[in-house]
């Protein structure tokens, strides 16, 4: 019973907030314009503030757990190659191959992953997520570009790649993480007060109003993001895309977490380097079991791939991943991993 309650407490807040957003949209409580502006606010301001604040809360830069970061990178690369194999074997349309690959390896790490990790592992798990995001978010964006241009050749392909790489550098989530790491690095060189053993100067203690602004913006990021995500949902299946939707959704929701999380557990048990703890696994679940990223549909459209398929994969992986995440949390809790 304790295991089931733990899993329900981790998953239900996310499910209800998404459902609440869907309900409000159906009741015309907000319109498309609100959803568009709200999504921009979350992505460009609130989530970067949350990532910055989370990294700022780490006491020292040497707390970075490199085995966790390294495995996260390896797992994303593994999912990319699994997606590549599946796309080449089962998908005929070149404009759909890259969409399937992207759906399999590119998770909704920020919008669903962060609140999920916090629900499972608390604030300490969010710190792990923030550090993993510093490496994994740019990696997933770069791999997304590769997947979407691999089978669809355009005359201005170089310009598309260049412009997308520029967008990666300007990505607000990446900026938030980089600024957080920079602050952490600078703080390591500031002398400590001999009495409190804290830096003689810090944003938290000396610029408290700025610290509170960043903290409050970060606190609203996750709930608002989930409500807006629910408001964007439209549930339907395009008949001629049913096969592709099934392949992409099943692989993302079932196969991807089954393979990568199993490997993580095995490595932790049988190697001394990858010694993961109950604080690390929520970050892995957030990265490897969360649904396909919302931004994948936007990028698919920009790079002349099948946008309709990309949108459907976002909706269905988000809907069905709630169940798969619940099962994963129950199993991990039962095994004493969480």
CATH class: Mainly Alpha
What ranges have pLDDT less than 50 throughout 5 or more consecutive residues? none
Measured as a percent range, the helix fraction is over 70%
Oligomer: single chain
Briefly note the CATH topology name: Na+/H+ antiporter like fold
Distance between the termini: 15 Å
Mean pLDDT: 84
Shape field: globular
Question: What is the β-strand count?
Answer: 0
Largest sheet report: none
Query: In the CATH hierarchy, what is the architecture at level 2?
Result: Up-down Bundle
**Helix/strand-derived class?**
mainly alpha
How many domains would you count in the coordinates? Answer: 1
Instruction: Tell me the radius of gyration.
Output: 20 Å
What is the number of helices? 13
Order of helices and strands: HHHHHHHHHHHHH
Proportion of beta-strand residues? under 5%
Structure description:
With 338 residues, this protein is mainly α. The chain has a single domain (2-334), classed as Na+/H+ antiporter like fold (Up-down Bundle), CATH 1.20.1530. It is 77% helix and 0% strand. It has 13 helices and no strands. Helix 3 (66-90) runs antiparallel to helix 10 and helix 5 (109-150) crosses helix 7 (172-187). It is globular and about 70 Å long. The model has no long low-confidence stretch (mean pLDDT 84).
């Amino acid at each position: 019973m304790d295991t089931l309650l733990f899993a329900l407490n981790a998953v239900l807040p996310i499910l209800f907030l998404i459902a609440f957003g869907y309900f409000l949209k159906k009741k015309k409580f907000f319109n498309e314009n609100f959803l568009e502006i709200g999504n921009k606010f979350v992505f460009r301001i609130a989530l970067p503030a949350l990532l910055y604040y989370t990294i700022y809360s780490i006491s020292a830069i040497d707390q970075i757990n490199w085995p966790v970061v390294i495995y996260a990178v390896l797992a994303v690369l593994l999912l990319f190659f699994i997606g590549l194999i599946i796309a080449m074997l089962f998908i005929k349309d070149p404009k759909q191959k890259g969409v399937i690959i992207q759906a399999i390896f590119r998770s909704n790490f920020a919008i669903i992953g962060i609140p999920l990790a916090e629900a499972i592992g608390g604030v300490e798990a969010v710190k792990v997520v923030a550090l993993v995001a510093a490496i994994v978010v740019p990696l997933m964006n770069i791999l997304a570009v590769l997947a979407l241009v691999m089978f669809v050749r355009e005359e201005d392909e170089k310009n598309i790649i260049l412009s997308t790489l520029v967008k990666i550098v300007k990505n607000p989530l990446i900026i938030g993480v980089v600024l957080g790491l920079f602050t952490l690095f600078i703080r390591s060189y500031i002398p400590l007060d001999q009495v409190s053993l804290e830096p003689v100067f810090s944003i938290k203690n000396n610029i408290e109003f700025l610290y509170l602004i960043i903290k409050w913006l970060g606190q609203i990021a996750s709930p608002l993001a989930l409500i807006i995500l629910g408001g964007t949902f439209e549930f339907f299946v395009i008949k001629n895309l049913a096969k592709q939707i099934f392949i992409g959704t099943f692989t993302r929701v079932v196969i991807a977490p089954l393979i990568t999380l199993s490997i993580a557990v095995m490595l932790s048990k049988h190697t001394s380097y990858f010694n993961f703890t109950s604080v690390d696994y929520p970050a892995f679940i957030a990265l490897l079991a969360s649904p396909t990223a919302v931004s994948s549909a936007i990028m698919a459209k920009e790079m002349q791939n099948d946008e309709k398929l990309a949108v459907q994969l976002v909706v269905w992986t988000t809907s069905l991943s709630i169940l798969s995440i619940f099962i994963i949390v129950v199993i991990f809790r039962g095994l004493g991993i969480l």
